[in-house]
Each structure stands twice: as structure tokens, then as C-alpha cells.
């Protein structure tokens, strides 16, 4: 994997080693709340598509399209939780923890494509607006506001550590704003008969979808490109490592994210010759865990002076149980 030091591991996995493999999508994520939100949105989406077709309202249909991505996002989040819970094994040494990132990226691309279609259709309707049933649009939009409020409440109770779960929550929140815009548009049409406002409301919804989609693609892309997690500055981490007593030199430092909520780090340390390099490694790992919340670390430690070309590998002490 890119970002992992090419050096061999030079330390045993002793009990003091700070590897915590319970990262990624939290096992305690409350799936019941996600299922509640999923069922609420799925049922209302079917009603909204039907009424949108009958009322000839692009705003309602675009809302339903956005809701479809919400449903897909929640469904993929639930599926990703199931996949991420599988133990690592075989060639999947991290398990399937990046399943949620794949689904987040797919959901983001879908949002971008749908928003582009709605923008094109809204512009066409601005030029040649159809007759829209304002009463139906208003009623359905008001009911949609209530449904989305319930869904937002349910999602807010769930564990939002996962990029997918947080993305789903943000989608439902933007859907709530979209329903408010649609309700206003329906009211205007109802009272004034100005049908172009429906297309304007659809443009607002499309803009919200585009913003959410680009955000998801960008965040999931950062993980695929193994950028340092947001909030973790590699320079600050390197400076902190160099201040640990016994560390003489640091190189080949990499900080990346296996999946959302699972930062990882690898690096090469040169330790002063009179100090036990494994003790220094333990100190560095403890500091990384306590200060930066990085629990998955891979550190090679060697004895040597200020240049990596003058190193002496730390010898392993054999385990007492081995002859």
C-alpha cells in the first residue's frame, strides 16, 4: 500500500504496542436509526414521484431524485457497516473497511450527475414553463418537511463517525432545505400562478445536490489518494515525534487514512545508541495515541547517529517461550 514504509517491521507485537484494530465504522453505530430514516424516506419518495408526475412539478421530481440518493447513501452505509465488520484475512489485510469509501464516492458521483440533469431540465422549463399544480406541490412539500425532520432526528441519534453516515445525514439535511424551497415555490404558484418559480426551486435543489456531491467526491478522493486526514498535520506530527526523548532522526514518515475514523502512520526512527530503541518506539506510539489519536502505527527503529546511512539495526530479544 502506498504510504507504508518499505522497511521491514523491526519490533514484535508486544502487549504495549498501540495497535487498535477496532477502527473505521464503529461497531456501536446504531443501525436501527438508519433503518428508520431509510424506511421514512423510501415510502415518501414513492409518493413524491407519483404526485410530481401528476402535478407536472420538476421541483417535486428533483426532490425525489435527491431523496433517492439519500436512500442509496443510507443503504450503502448499512451495507458498508456489514462489510467493515468482517475480520481481516487473506489478501484483505485491512478487511473491507474501505467499502464505505467506495459507496461514498459512488453516491457523490450520482449526486453530481443528477444535479447536472436537473439544471438542464430547469433551464428548459424556465424558457417554456408547463402548468404546475401549486396546491399539490405545496401539500406534498409540507408533508416532506415533516418526514425529513423525523429522518434528521433519527440520523442524529446514529453514530456518525463513518463518512457515509455523516454524508447521509448531510444529504437529508439539504433535502429538508430543498423541501422548504419547494413549499415556497408551490405557495407562490398557488397564489400567483407564476409557474417559472417551480424551475427556480429545482435549480436551488440542484445546487444543493451539486455541493453535497462534490463534497463527498472530494472527501472520499482524499482517502483514496491517501492524503493525511483532515486535522492531522504531518509536519506537526513529525515535530512531536522528534521531541520524544531518545529520538535522534526521523524519516520516511507517512500519514494516511485507511477509512474514515482510521488514521494510520508509518516511519523510520533513529535512536541514540545508549537507549533501548524498543522503549523509544513505545514512547512514540503512546504519544501518537494520546496526542493525535493515531492508534495504527508501523515504526522501524534503528540505533545510529544523525544520518540514516550510519545505522545499526535493533536486535530482537527472543521471547522466553521460544527455545
Outline the structure in words.
This protein has 323 residues and is of the alpha+beta class. The chain has 2 domains: 31-224, Cation efflux protein transmembrane domain (Alpha-lytic protease prodomain-like, Up-down Bundle), CATH 1.20.1510; 234-313, Cation efflux protein, cytoplasmic domain (Alpha-Beta Plaits). 59% of the residues lie in helices and 11% in strands. A 4-stranded mixed β-sheet has the order 1-2-3-4, covered by helices on one side. The longest helix has 30 residues, at 163-192. Mean pLDDT is 77; it is low at 1-29 and 315-323.
Total individual domains: 2
Q: Choose one word for the global shape.
A: elongated
Strands, total number: 4
Q: Kindly report the spatial arrangement of strands forming the biggest sheet.
A: 1-2-3-4
Question: Terminal Cα separation, in Å?
Answer: 35 Å
Major β-sheet profile = 4 strands, mixed
Average pLDDT number: 77
Uncertain spans? 1-29, 315-323
Amino acid at each position: 500500500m502506498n504510504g507504508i514504509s518499505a522497511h521491514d517491521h523491526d519490533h514484535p507485537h508486544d502487549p504495549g504496542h498501540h495497535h487498535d484494530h477496532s477502527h473505521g465504522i464503529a461497531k456501536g453505530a446504531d443501525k436501527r436509526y438508519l433503518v428508520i430514516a431509510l424506511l421514512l424516506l423510501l415510502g415518501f419518495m414513492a409518493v413524491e414521484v407519483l404526485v410530481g408526475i401528476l402535478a407536472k412539478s420538476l421541483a417535486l421530481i428533483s426532490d425525489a431524485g435527491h431523496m433517492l440518493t439519500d436512500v442509496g447513501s443510507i443503504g450503502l452505509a448499512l451495507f458498508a457497516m456489514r462489510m467493515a465488520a468482517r475480520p481481516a484475512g487473506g489478501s484483505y489485510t485491512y478487511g473491507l473497511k474501505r467499502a464505505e469509501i467506495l459507496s461514498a464516492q459512488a453516491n457523490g458521483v450520482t449526486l453530481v450527475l443528477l444535479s447536472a440533469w436537473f439544471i438542464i431540465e430547469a433551464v428548459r422549463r424556465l424558457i417554456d414553463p408547463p402548468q404546475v399544480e401549486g396546491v399539490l406541490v405545496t401539500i406534498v412539500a409540507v408533508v416532506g418537511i415533516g418526514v425529513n425532520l423525523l429522518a434528521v432526528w433519527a440520523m442524529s441519534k446514529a453514530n456518525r463517525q463513518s463518512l457515509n453516515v455523516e454524508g447521509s445525514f448531510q444529504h437529508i439535511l439539504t433535502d429538508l432545505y430543498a423541501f422548504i424551497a419547494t413549499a415556497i415555490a408551490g405557495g407562490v404558484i398557488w397564489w400567483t400562478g407564476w409557474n417559472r418559480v417551480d424551475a427556480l426551486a429545482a435549480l436551488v435543489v440542484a445546487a444543493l445536490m451539486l455541493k453535497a456531491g462534490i463534497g463527498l467526491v472530494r472527501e472520499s478522493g482524499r482517502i483514496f489518494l491517501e492524503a493525511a486526514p483532515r486535522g492531522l498535520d504531518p509536519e506537526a506530527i513529525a515535530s512531536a515525534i522528534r521531541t520524544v526523548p531518545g529520538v535522534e532522526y526521523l524519516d520516511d514518515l507517512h500519514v494516511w487514512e485507511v477509512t474514515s475514523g482510521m488514521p494510520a502512520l508509518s516511519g523510520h526512527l533513529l535512536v541514540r545508541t545508549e537507549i533501548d530503541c524498543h522503549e523509544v518506539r513505545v514512547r512514540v506510539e503512546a504519544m501518537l495515541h494520546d496526542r493525535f489519536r493515531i492508534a495504527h502505527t508501523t515504526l522501524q527503529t534503528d540505533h545510529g547517529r544523525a544520518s540514516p546511512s550510519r545505522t545499526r539495526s535493533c536486535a530482537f530479544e527472543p521471547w522466553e517461550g521460544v527455545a
